[in-house]
Amino acid sequence: MHKFLQRDYPTINLKTTQGKYLTKDALELLATGKVDAYVGNLTTGSYIIKQEGYNNIKVAAPTKYGVHKNAMAIRDDWSPLVSIINTELRSMTDEQKEKIKNKYFSVKYEYGINSKDVFKWISIILSVSLIVILMILKINKHLKLKVKEEVEKNKQQQLLMLQQSRLAQMGEMISMIAHQWRQPLNSLAVLNQTVLLKYSRDKLDDKVIEYFKENSKKQIQNMSKTIDDFRDFFKPEKEKVEFNVNDVINDTLEMVNAIFSQYEIDIAFDTHKEYKTIGYPNELGQAILNIVNNAKDVLIENEVQNKKVEIVLNENHIIIKDNAGGIPKDIIDKIYDPYFSTKEEKNGTGLGLYMTKLIIEDHMGGKLSVSNDKDGAVFKIVFRDEGI
């Protein structure tokens, strides 16, 4: 191996170890940063890495100079044992052999990124970035139109608060997209690693390529659908329409499901019938989103065990409650005030609940109230009609 490396890579400074513990000594040099890499026997190296607990060393990849199969050694004066063991090995499945081998060493190859991979991932990143930028530009266009309409109806101060709230929601939207994309991105990375591994072992056939094509396509379509769902959810509306409140609540829960799961927050929706009303479904969804996100922040900040948020739809009203301990009495009457926030250290804008009240009462003609029960805060949204 040393001769091959000297021949093929003459500029590399090669250092050899000698003696009884040459592999252990070489890995010690690597673990302490005195050399950059180690080349040697896979089985011996893996065993010593495991025994010595070198958690800062990883097996990178096999060399191009041949692969040695792992074998079982038997004393040459014990010939009956050779026959016995060979008979037993022939009766074992590959899975059983792999399980025995993994008791002594386990290898995970971590390949470097070649130029093709770099260009491929740069293309993917640029494409995704372009989609996000176009989406944000489209949302910004809607925001400008919305601001222009509000200028004609409201004071300049109210317009400023509306715009700030929308921008804050964009930040929430991008954060939630990131959480929704994490799983398909991980899946794409695994698919890519599988293809590389099959290629390195000369096992890259049509079946593997077809599996990669179908599954990567499915993950990319899932990511594209996520963008469309969030874009539609935050799209401003100009006219009131008839809509199903149950659908709005379910769509909102889909938006927050990934981030709520990350913080181990159980969020549930309970209803026994469908309820329809007339208004702005996207604005109602954003109002509900503001309330549940506020509950999420308080549950995390208070380090509540068994964190829960419950949404109940009864007749013409929605109840949203949590178990975060409730709102202090000295501020419960101020939570709807513009720019009032208990999260200043976390860059809270103080506009979320103000805009929620504005949407429910001014735009929807309903009523928003808040109280405390024995577990936490209780928000109640009452619609002005009795449903359709």
Outline the structure in words.
This protein has 388 residues and is an alpha+beta fold. The chain is built from eleven helices and seven strands. The protein has helices at 2-8, 22-31, 42-52, 79-91, 94-102, 115-153, 156-200, 206-233, 245-262, 281-301, 352-363, and strands at 241-244, 266-271, 276-279, 308-314, 317-322, 367-372, 377-382. The strands form two sheets. A five-stranded mixed sheet has the order 2-4-5-7-6. Strands 1-3 form a two-stranded antiparallel ribbon. Strand 4 and strand 5 form a beta hairpin. The longest helix is centred in the middle third of the chain and has 45 residues, at 156-200. The chain is elongated and about 95 Å long. It starts with a helix and ends in a 6-residue tail after the last strand. The model is unreliable at 344-349 (pLDDT under 50).
What pattern of helices and strands is seen along the backbone? HHHHHHHHEHEEHEEHEE
Major sheet, described briefly?
Answer: 5 strands, mixed
Q: What is the residue-averaged pLDDT?
A: 79
Shape annotation: elongated
Give the amount of beta strand, in percent.
5-15%
Q: What is the number of helices?
A: 11
From the alpha-carbon coordinates, what is the Rg to the nearest angstrom?
Answer: 31 Å
Regions with pLDDT < 50 over 5+ consecutive residues? 344-349
Find the count of extended strands (DSSP E, 2+ residues).
7
